[in-house]
Design brief:
This protein has 290 residues and is mainly alpha-helical. The protein has a single domain, classed as ABC transporter involved in vitamin B12 uptake, BtuC (Orthogonal Bundle), CATH 1.10.3470. Helix content is 71%, strand content 2%. The protein has eleven helices and two strands, in the order ααααββααααααα. It has a two-stranded antiparallel ribbon with strand order 1-2. Helix 1 runs parallel beside helix 5, helix 2 runs parallel beside helix 4 and helix 2 packs across helix 8. The protein is globular.
Length: 290
């Protein structure tokens, strides 16, 4: 029983970081209807920005986080201006292919600049371990989960109560009506890419402090595709619930079956659920009449 509790806690805590990455997907999809296949590479690039500021230039951890967030925001704005804006009005697949191309460019740029070796990244926050009876949860896992919960909570408050958050929600809900009411759709979409980059950077920093930083970090975002499909592409709540579920499932499978089945079982579960609910657990159901 203690093993089950240990695996469950580790999985749920890992799911908190998955929720952060999934939030980056959902933010962009809700405002632009585009799936950003470069979110893993953006996450990795933001983590390398943090590593460069903290380790190479000796900036304090918190200041390094701020510099990394500023850098990834500038990068997101440049990408939106140079690539996405000229593709405005083009088929969605064109923008999708642009994000795939961006992922390849970032990956090659990172390997050329920082190399492919795994490096250790200092934690920006103090470590807090959790003791639950006979179960000990590592401090890095608990700290990452706590940081993810705080960030998701701040974003929830931002979207619900701030003027900018209401603007983003309106754009995501009905961009045509929002534009009619005078909302700058371009600004909202641009901001969604910046916020997704910020969320991805923080997730990348949290993951890299626990398991090391290398270009392979971007592959971690692939597991999140199961999360956003399961929860619904346009649902923040669905992303959170599905992330916790997938994190728990992966931990249980690794604990009792082995690491080889880790990437298979979540997708089989998602496939089974989508056969019943094609739009995910919390996704918006769309009906087209012919």
């Amino acid at each position: 029983m203690s093993e089950f509790i240990e695996f469950s806690l580790l999985g749920l805590f890992s799911g908190g970081v998955y929720a952060l990455i999934a939030l980056g997907f959902v933010l962009i999809y809700k405002c632009t209807r585009v799936i950003n296949f470069a979110i893993g590479e953006v996450m990795m690039l933001g983590a390398y920005f943090y590593y460069t500021a903290n380790v190479i230039f000796g900036v304090s951890p918190l200041e390094a986080v701020v510099l990394a967030l500023i850098s990834i925001s500038i990068f997101s704005l440049i990408f939106e201006y140079l690539v996405l804006r000229p593709l405005s009005g083009q088929p969605v697949v064109s923008v999708l292919m642009a994000t795939i191309g961006l992922a390849s460019i970032i990956h090659g740029m990172v390997e050329a600049t920082w190399g492919s070796d795994t490096v250790n990244v200092p934690r920006p926050f103090p470590s807090m371990r959790l003791i639950f009876g006979d179960v000990l949860v590592p401090g890095s896992v608990v700290t990452n989960f706590a940081a993810a919960v705080v960030l998701i909570g701040l974003f929830s408050v931002f979207f619900r109560y701030s003027k900018t958050g209401v603007t983003l929600r309106a754009t995501a809900s009905d961009p045509v009506t929002a534009a009619t009411l005078g909302i700058d759709i371009r600004y909202a979409q641009r901001l969604s890419w910046v916020l997704a980059g910020i969320v991805g950077t923080i997730a990348g920093v949290l993951i890299s402090t626990a398991s090391g930083l290398s270009p392979l970090l971007s592959a971690g975002a692939l597991s999140v595709f199961a999360v956003i499909i399961l929860g619904g592409l346009d649902s923040v709540l669905g992303a959170i619930v599905a992330a916790l579920a997938v994190g728990w499932m992966e931990s249980i499978v690794v604990g009792y079956v082995g690491g080889k089945a880790r990437d298979v079982v979540p997708y089989l579960t998602v496939l089974g659920i989508l056969m019943i609910r094609p739009y995910g657990l919390f996704g918006t159901r769309q009906i087209e009449r012919l």
